[in-house]
Design a protein that fits this description.
With about 475 residues, the chain is an alpha/beta fold. About 60% of the residues lie in helices and about 5% in strands.
Length: about 475
């Protein structure tokens, strides 16, 4: 019977992994956007792999991802640059299954299903950045630490060193996991009978080496890093969007606000449920979902603030939620009905967001620039924008895909280029059908939208003859 159960569980896990990969693969083929282009630009200016740690001093440098792009070098297609994100994002669903399996097969299914179909995780698992990687190493850290609590083995300690080191090199938001793991282990290692020497020894075994590496990483690299500029987004709006997206809600409006409130209540109730079940991992969950991000925000007061900063809170919130949902499904009656409705709503909401992502991607840059290129007649076409760095770098990257005799030359707006590319991040809002710059008029010929999170809308204006 156990062998048959294990066999069926294996097929279920394989199904969730295939679902996760299938949802993430289409995103690989969306247009390469600015942050990815920026990383490639950094890589092309490096003399060796060591430059990732010694020369590149910018927050756009996600070290493991940058090393991967450096190893590949210039390519015709950008899809290979995104493969580590796809692999990490897919395998993260397997780790979510493993964490949920501590509470039984139904909990494993719910945890894997929530993570496989999450719009946020689908989006960032197809992007050549460090976000999918840090999620993978965060989940792997929890799996390894749970094993360590049972075995106190050196192998598990060494695996945690590896996960922690790779997590920090993926993205610095891993600090939330590291702090939460420290709080969790401080309590869990003290049970069932507290002995200071053994407790301190276990703590040093797990955290001494990663802490030393983190201090070196900070001193020689992080403290010298420049935080990149970004769009000035309303902080409350970002909070609402992040919380709404966590459970498949819309990006804005009263429904987004309602979904955000529901997310806070459900994640809080889920952590409380874990505490009532006397599972010490609740300490990790409350710190990684709520405490560490809140303290970090209060201390740093970042000028640049994005939904993606809440990815670890989201993934562990979903795993926390999976346990009480699985219990409700197993219980039956009205409670099961509520759980089914909630799961259906979350899945449908995520499906709507994912469908929009497939349709609009991270922007419509290549086809827009081909439109401009094909309009050229007697000379090279010129184009300008409302943000030199963003527009110029995107044009320069995509020029390689245009005919040499029709590649676009960037010009400032004051030079009255043939085309104007005005970008908007967030809701598209209203826009003018015509623009006037000095005595020059431009007509709107195309609106190139994006889905959200990565990229921007382009309003494409052509100079009137």
């Amino acid at each position: 019977m156990n062998a048959r159960l294990a066999h069926s569980s294996g097929w279920l896990l394989a199904g969730f992994l295939l679902l996760a990969a299938g949802l993430r693969i289409p995103g690989l083929f969306t247009d390469f956007w600015l942050d990815e282009i920026w990383t490639l630009k950094i890589v092309l200016g490096m003399d060796s792999a060591w430059d990732v740690f010694t020369t590149v001093r910018h927050s756009n440098n996600h070290h493991l991802n940058t090393l991967w792009i450096y190893a590949l070098g210039p390519l015709e297609s950008w899809v290979p640059y995104r493969l580590p994100a796809l692999l990490a994002g897919t395998l993260s669903v397997g780790l979510a299954w493993r964490i949920g399996a501590r509470g039984g097969r139904l909990e494993a299914c719910v945890a894997a299903g929530l993570c496989a179909t999450s719009y946020l995780l689908v989006h960032y698992s197809s992007e050549a950045r460090g976000y999918a990687l840090v999620i993978f190493f965060a989940l792997a850290s929890v799996v390894v630490l749970e094993d360590y609590l049972r075995t106190r083995g050196r192998t598990q300690a060494a695996l945690f060193w590896l996960c922690a080191s790779a997590g920090f090199l993926s993205h610095l938001m891993y600090i939330h996991v590291f702090v939460a793991a420290g709080a969790w282990m401080a309590v869990a290692l003290a049970r069932p009978d507290f002995r200071f020497r053994a407790w301190a020894g276990d703590g040093l075994r797990l955290f001494a080496l990663p802490t030393a590496l983190l201090m070196c990483f900070y001193w020689f690299d992080i403290r010298l890093t420049k935080i990149g500029d970004g769009p000035e987004l309303d902080t409350l709006e970002v909070f609402v969007r992040a919380l709404s997206y966590a459970l498949g809600g819309p990006p804005a409006g009263w429904l987004a606000a309602a979904a955000a409130v529901a997310t806070v209540l459900l994640f809080s109730a889920s952590v409380l449920w874990w505490q009532l079940q006397r599972r010490d991992v609740w300490i990790f969950l409350v710190v990684v979902i709520f405490v560490s991000p809140a303290v970090s925000f209060w201390l740093m007061r970042p000028e640049v603030f994005f939904v993606r900063y809440f990815l670890l809170s989201t993934v562990f919130g979903l795993i926390a939620l999976a346990a009480p949902l699985a219990r409700a499904l197993a219980r039956g009656g009205p409670v099961r009905g509520i759980a089914v409705v909630l799961l259906a709503a979350v899945t449908i909401g995520n499906g709507i967001r994912i469908a929009s992502f497939y349709e609009y991607g991270r922007g419509d840059y290549l086809s827009t620039l081909r439109l401009i290129s094909e309009s050229a007649t007697l000379r090279l076409p010129t184009a300008g924008g409302d943000h030199r760095f963003r527009t110029h770098n995107v044009i320069r990257f995509y020029n390689r895909y245009l005919p040499e005799d029709r590649r676009i030359v960037y010009r400032e707006q004051s030079e009255h280029p043939d085309w104007l590319l005005l970008h908007r991040i967030g809701p598209l809002g209203r826009y003018a059908p015509e623009l006037h710059r000095d005595e020059v008029s431009y007509e709107l010929v195309k609106v190139a939208p994006y889905s959200d999170l990565s990229g921007w809308h382009w309003l494409v204006y052509r100079r009137e003859r």
